[in-house]
Structures
1.
Amino acid sequence: MPGNRAPLSRERVLRAAVAIADAGGLGTLTMRSLARELDVKPMSLYHHVANKDEILDGIVDLVFGLIDLPSPDGDWRHELHRRSTSARRVLGRHPWAVGLLVSRTAPGPATLRHHDAVVGTLRRAGFPVDLTAHAFALLDSYVYGFVVQEAALPFRGDDGAADVTGRIMDGFSPGDYPHLVEMATGHVLLPGYDFGDEFGFGLDAVLDAIAGWLR
Amino acid sequence: MPGNRAPLSRERVLRAAVAIADAGGLGTLTMRSLARELDVKPMSLYHHVANKDEILDGIVDLVFGLIDLPSPDGDWRHELHRRSTSARRVLGRHPWAVGLLVSRTAPGPATLRHHDAVVGTLRRAGFPVDLTAHAFALLDSYVYGFVVQEAALPFRGDDGAADVTGRIMDGFSPGDYPHLVEMATGHVLLPGYDFGDEFGFGLDAVLDAIAGWLR
DNA sequence: ACCTGAACACCGTTCAAGT
DNA sequence: ACCTGAACACCGTTCAAGT
C-alpha cells in the first residue's frame, strides 16, 4: 500500500476507515484493523480521534460531504433531483452509512451543511416553512429508504436475485409467498430489470407531490 | 426477572435479544449480555441458535412479524395506510432493526410474508406487475427512510431538539446553517410541533401518487 | 438432550514509557 | 508532539466434559 506512511491525521484515519467499511462491512472496521491498514499501532489512532465512536460519527459525516449540494439559485426541482440522485449513488456506495444513521444523534458539519442547503433551496423556491418541513421529511425519507431497500433486498446483481428467489421458492413450503414468486419470476428476474431503476420513478413522484404543494 | 428460568428456546433467546437491543442499543447486545439476561451461561445459547448472526437475522424477522399485515380483500389504499402506519410505529420502537436491514440479505419468513401481503394487496387492487414494483419501492422506501430520519434527526422529544439546536447554533461559527436555524427556531421548536406528525402527511402524498398510476 | 468450564483469538481503551 | 508496549476487561466461538 503506497503512501500509507504519510504522517497520520484525522483525515487519513477517517478515509482509511471508510475504505475498510466499504471493503468488508462495518463489522471488519476495528481500531486494530484500521491501525494495520495505516501501518501503525492501534494506540496511535487515539492521538487523532477520541475513540471509535468519534470515528463512526466522522465517517458518516465524510460520506455526507461527498453528496452534491443543491444550488439554492437554480430551479429547485432540478437542483433537488440532482442532489437526490447524487445522495442515492453516494449512500448506495457506502450503505453502512445509512445503517449508522439510526444510532447516532450527532450530525457533523458536512451533514448539517447538506441539510441546510436542501432546506435553503426549498425556502428560496417559495415554500413556507411548514411545507418545507413536509418536503424535507418526504424527500429525504424516500432517499434514505431507497438506499436501505437497495442494500437489503437481494434484487440486485444478476446472481443475488436468483439466489434469493431460489431460497424463497424452495427453502419454504411451496405456495408460500405466491405474490413474491410472481413478482420475481414475472418481472424482477427478467433480463432488463434493475431495481435501481425504480429510484428515478419514485423520485419524480415525490417531486411531483412536493411541486403540487407550491400552487 | 420472573419466569426467566423457563426452558431456553430459540423464541426466548430472540425475545430477550430484542429487549436488550431496545434497552441499550445493538452495541449492548452480546452473547454474554444475552446469556446473563436469560440467567444462563453464554455457551447454552449455541444450542438454540447457530451464532450471533442468526440472532441478528432472527430479531429483524421477529420485528417484521409485529407489523400489521394488509388484508388483500380490503380497500387497497386503506389497507396499505394501516400497515404503513403500523410499520412506522413498530420499526420506530425498534430502530436498530432498520439499521440492521442494510447489512443482511437473508429475509426471514415473517419478512417474506409481510412483503408478500403488500405485493398481493397491490396486485389484487389491479396494479399490473410493473406498477406494483414501482409502488412497492416507493412506499417502503418512504416508510424505512422515515424511521431512519426519526431516529437520526434530533428533532424528537422536547429536550433533544433544543439540545441539537443549541449545538447547531453555538457549536459552530454563527451564521452557518442559517436555514436550519430558521427551521428550528421558527417551526420545529415551537410548542405544538412533532416530527412524527410529518409521517401521515408524506404517506398520503405517496399513496396519492400511487393511486394516480392506477387510472 | 441440554447445559457448562476452560480456553483461544480477538475487541476497545488506559497508562506509563519511549523518541 | 507523536508514537508505542504492556495490560485490563471485554468479545464470539470451539471443544471436551458433565447431567
2.
Amino acid sequence: MPQMKTSADLRVHNQTRLLRAVHDADQPLTRASAARVLGIGRNTIAALVGELETAGLLHEVPAATTGRGRPTTLLLPHPRGPVAFAADIREDSWTLAQIELGGRLTGLETGEHDRTPAVFDDIRRATRRHATDRLVSLGIALAGPILDGRRLHISHLGWDEVDLYEQIGDDWPPTVVVDNDARLAGLAEARRGALRGAGTALHFHIDFDIGGTLLLGGHTQRGAHNIAGEFGHMPLTGGSGLRCMCGVQGCWSLDVGTNALLRRFGREPGYGAGRQLGREILARAEAGEAEAGRAVDDNAVALGRGLGALANALDPEAITLSGLGVELIRLRRDLIEHACAEGLMEFRRAQPPRILAGTVGEAGPLRGAAETAFDAVLSAGWLRGRI
Amino acid sequence: MPQMKTSADLRVHNQTRLLRAVHDADQPLTRASAARVLGIGRNTIAALVGELETAGLLHEVPAATTGRGRPTTLLLPHPRGPVAFAADIREDSWTLAQIELGGRLTGLETGEHDRTPAVFDDIRRATRRHATDRLVSLGIALAGPILDGRRLHISHLGWDEVDLYEQIGDDWPPTVVVDNDARLAGLAEARRGALRGAGTALHFHIDFDIGGTLLLGGHTQRGAHNIAGEFGHMPLTGGSGLRCMCGVQGCWSLDVGTNALLRRFGREPGYGAGRQLGREILARAEAGEAEAGRAVDDNAVALGRGLGALANALDPEAITLSGLGVELIRLRRDLIEHACAEGLMEFRRAQPPRILAGTVGEAGPLRGAAETAFDAVLSAGWLRGRI
DNA sequence: GCGATTTTGTTCTTGGTGAGAACTTAACGG
DNA sequence: CCGTTAAGTTCTCACCAAGAACAAAATCGC
C-alpha cells in the first residue's frame, strides 16, 4: 500500500491480494474460493486470473470435483512463472534453494566455505549456475546483525565490519535482500510455522548466543538501523557479572545458549568452537548425568526468566524458539515455564504467553530468506511492471 | 486499509487521506498544496473537498495570497464538524478536553476525584454537560495497564481488577477508547511532538515507576492483551535484589523513578504518596545537596543503562521521556547518555539513539487520548457512514 | 436415467473514479 | 496594460468492480 490513488492501482492491488492469497494458502485455492477469500465477485476474479495467467504468473488446472456444482479450477503457480532464490550462510556451509509462488521450496545446492567473505563469491557462482530467466530475486540469511543493511558483524566468523556492497557486485539477480538469520527464522514461523496468524509474537533462535525478532502481524521488526532483535544483549538475568563479547556487562546471552553451557564446563567460548561439546552436554543431561543436567537446568531457567521479562514489555501471544531452544523445550519445558511465570508481573500470570518449539525446523532461516525474497514478486510495484 | 476493493472504496480512501493530511499538517493546507501532498489532480481534489464540505467535515476559507497565481482556499475544520473528547485521569484529578480536525485542543473542565472508580461517573457527567451533536468519540487516559481492554490495574489508586465495562454504561458517546497514559503520551510525541516522522521509537513516562511504549511508524504497540509497554518490569538494572510491587524481583522500576528516589531517603514507596518529597529531592539535588545529588545520579544511571539495553533489542532511532524523565535529562543528560552507551553493544555506540525530552509536556496523555479518539473520525469506515 | 438442485463461469450493463487536456479565472509584475 | 503564473473548472476518456441474468457442468433424489 505504498500509495493507492487511481482505479488502475485498484486492479494491481487486487491482483496482488490474489497472488498473496495463493502464496499463503495451505492448499491450492480454487478460483471460486479465491473469490470468497478476497470478497470479490466471480466476474472480477475471472478478469484478475485471466491477466495473471497471460502474464505468466498463474496457471489454471481443472480441480477435482467435490460435491455438486460446476467444476472449477485450481490456481497454481505458472510453470514458467517467477521464482526467488534463497541462501543460508551458516558457520562453515551454505545452502541455495528456490521458492516459487505457493511456497514450494526446492533445494539447489549446498557447499562449504572458508569462513571469509569469499562465500559471497561461492553463492554468486552457484546462483549463476542455477539461474534461469525465471529468477527474480535472491534472499540471503546471515548469522549476525547487518547495520544499516550493509555493514555485517558476524562475531563467530570474525567478520567485524564487512561491507556488503563491496561483496555484492552488479552481476547478481535483480534484487538482493540480506537479513539476519534469527529474524528470518521468526518470519518463517510467522508465515509457515507455529506463529501463523499471530498478531504480536516473539521468536528466538538460540545457538551459541540468543537472537530473535519481534513479529507484528506477520512482519518482522527491523528497527531504525536494521539491527533490532539483539535481545540476547539485555541484562535480563544479570549474566553472572561477566562481560560479554559484545562489549556489555551482564548480557542474557551469557546465561542462555551453547556458550553458557560450555562455560559451565570450563570452556571459554570462542568464535563458534564447541558446538559438538554443546550437543554432548545435552545428551549427557538427557542420560541423567548430574553436572550436565544442572547446566541445562540453569540454561532453561535463565531462558524462562528472560522470556518473562520480555513478555512484560512486549506482551506477545506466543513465543517460538528454534535451535537449541527446541531441545530446551523438549527437556525442560516445566523449568522454562516456571521461570517465565516468575518473571511475569503477577496480574499476567493467568494468561502467560505460549512458549512453543518452532515447527519450521532448521530450514527456518532459509525459508525466511525465501519468503522475503519472494515478497518482491508479491508487491504492487513489481506486478505493475510485469503485466 | 481494512480492505479496499471497489472504486467506491477508492473515493473514501482518498478522502480519508485528505482528512488525515489536514489533521496532521503543521499549518493549514491550501487546496492546491493538498493536491500536491496527496499526489492527486486538481480536479480530483475539487471533488473530494466538495463532498467533504457538504458532509460538514471541511470548511473552505479564502487564503491570503502569496505571490502570483490565482488565489486558493484554506482547508479548515468545519465549524459544525465532528469533535472528539479526551479525558485524562490522574492521581486525584481529571481533565476533559475537546479536539477537532487539525488537532486544536480545547480544555473543557477539570475536577478532583476520590480515587475510586466513581471518577468514571464524574467524567460521564462532565461529558454530558459539554456534549453536543458534534461529539463523536471519547478517549480516556489511565495510569495503568488495561488487560484485554477492559480490566484495569492501577496500583497507585489501589484498583486491582476494575472491570471497565461495568463502569461504562450505555449513555456514553458512540465510541469510548480507553488506553494507558504512558502509551498515549508516546502517541502524542509521535503525532505532535519530538517523535514526528520517526519510524521506530520508544517513549517512556517516568512517574513513580516507569512505563512506556514502542512506536512504529507513528503507531503505538498494544500487544496481544493490550498490556504491552511495561518496560519498567524488566530486570534491566538488577533492582538491588528487591522485590517489586508487581510481584517480580529486580524490576528496572525499582531503580528509576520517584519511588527509587524516595527509597534512597528511607521512604518505603506506597500508593502514590510522596510526590511532593520527590520534587524536593530534585530541587535539593539541583541546589547542590550531596545525598540528594547521589540519589538523582543513581536514578539517571539506572535510566541510561536500561535505555541502552532496550536499544539493543529494539533499535529505536529516538527515545523520548516525559514526567520525571524531563527533569533527569535537564539535570543529568551526560550521565544518562554515558550509562546508555555502556549498555549499548559496542558496534552500535557510534550511532546511539537520540534521547530527548518530550515536547508535548504534561498534556501528553490528554493529547494522546484526543488523538486516538479522533482517529475514529479519520477512518474509512466512519467516513463511509457520514457521507 | 432423467429432471431438480447446486455451484461456478460468462456476458452485458451500469455507476463510479481518477487522469488528462483544454480552458477560465484571478492574482502579480514590469 | 498586457504577459506571466498558479489555481479552479469542465469535459472526455479509460478503467474498474458490482450486479443481474444466463449458461454450463457437476451431484442428488426419485
